[in-house]
Amino acid sequence: MTIAATPDLTEAVTTRDPDVTTRRRKRLRPSTKKSNLLTVLLWLCALYFLLPLIWLFIASTKDNADLFSTFGFWFGHKFALWDNLENVFTVRGGIYLRWAANTVLYALVSALGASFLATMAGYAFAKYQFPGAKALFSILLGAIMIPLTALALPTYLMFNSFGLTNSPFAIIIPSLVSPFGVYLMRVYAADSIDDSLMEAARMDGAGEARIFFQVGLRLLGPGIVTVFLFTLVGTWNNYFLPLIMLNSSDLYPLTVGLAQQQAATAGGGGSQALFSTVITGSLVSVIPLIVAFLFLQRYWQSGLSTGGVKG
């Protein structure tokens, strides 16, 4: 009588063979060479983004003399960070605070509005079939390819005809339109919101608006945060649009205000040397963006709809 070997016994006998065990380990072992190469590339990318911030911090600790006479990536003879910070908030009657308030207003309102509009448009493109949807989405993709500088002059002429130049609306309204945000939300909504959830909500008597606000927005949270951060950073760092739209220094954001301050310093003509002050002001202007990212990254998650629909 023959006894058939059980799968467990066969596997146990096979794993005792040292050659088989070695071959299995080689198959499961990741490529060390590839891993090391990716690690080096990631460190190079990190240095590419961190080196300017490191230089900015070190330069903010120098006075005007050390700024031009010492090595850029090392501290000067005098640690002047606190003096520079004091100058940032006191020069010209503390106009830096006015520029900072303008920047916060422009960036927050634009980011909130652009995120909401992009979410609604992306949700509609992803979940509804309506006449002209493909044509509109193709136009949207084409709008992403157009550089913003090419639209600056037509935008200025249009806003000037309505009398909206030299006002906060000239910065906020153009920033509400985000073709890339609509594209991103369209792709995200297509994968994150299951059609079965929407059908179940309709069967329970929910209208389309209620489905969007109570179901869609909750599942699109990570995408909304992504669009919000992109728009916030884009509006915060926007320089060209405020430069052509605004004439009053009281309406300037930090980008234009610091650039005008630096230009006045470089031009001389009896102006106070404010190179260190401008650099320190630039450092201070970066801090809110870092704080916003660190605060919002916990919401930057995916897979929130996993388990929401049973198979």
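(the above was protein one; protein two follows)
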Amino acid sequence: MDRGWVPGGSRRRLLKAGIGLAALSLCSTAAAADQNWQTFKRRFVVDDRRVIDSGNNNVSHSESQGWGLLFAQSYDDKETFAKIWDWTSKSLQRGDGLFSWRWSPNTNDPVPDKNNAADGDILIAWALARAAAKWNEPRWLQPSRRIQSAVLDRLAVEFQGRLILLPGAQGFARGNRYVVNLSYYVWPAIHDFAEHAGDQGRWRRLEADGLWLLDNAAFGDYRLPPDWLLFGNQAFRVADDWKPYFGFDAIRIPLYLAWHNQASRLGRFVTAWRTPRFGGRPPAWINLDNGAVAPFPSSGGYAAVAAVTQFVADGAKGAAPVAAIGDDDDYYSASLKLLANLAGQEAPRAKRT
């Protein structure tokens, strides 16, 4: 979920300055990886239940809860996983099985906007399915399947011969076009659903058609996808309601592609970051209309995404880079680091599409 996206409102978000790719801390032991999770949990998980966005007034998102569940499962923290899921299901889950996108502390109504966010829904369903398999816990498989079915029924839309994923159930139709956020396609999760879910056919179509959208969403000198895309009549534009950036959302596109070991689709990102202008480090955002970049540096989490993208693009051979969470990392930067670490571990075993 884009913390800058408020349905019906404005988007304002400044990234906290971090460290560059050259300063990316690397570690390779299980103890160091576990320490990353312990640090994340201490700083960003309240009462082992609610994952807070420290850069956005300590709100929680369906995305943050999904990532928290994924981290707890991956680092074998069953107790924390159960607590995060209990809070998430009670505080954010809607009657249709999907989740309201944001929970705000210190307000009379912590969930004033009941709209959902597709990435949060998918992440939660994926973490539940992984936990059910890892710990042999059938109690988590049924809610995962319910969420998966709700995503297909409420968010997967037949449009001009393609099955596309809406970012949320409401607010993304523009006449004969739809707004799409390609960072909400969590590719390894969608592929897992297509392999194991009850409705494999629709998941496979959603995966294939989503990759087609991504391959054709190429803007600016670096041919990069935008944070928000407008699709209709087989034509692609940057969505009018958002800035023409490859930025805060789109940085997750190469991350999820790398996790799914889509090496052939990572070239344009690596090529852009290798230009002398960037020196291997992704800017906080790139304006796809005029080539301008953010006047502030990107976070250490961006550097971690660049490192794992390069690792997979080069064939995912040898030891994967592992980024350490530092004092300068806010919630989003720390989350990107943990996600990049998991992607590096799992990418060599992922199936290519």
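Reviewer note on protein two: The two ends are 25 Å apart (CA to CA).
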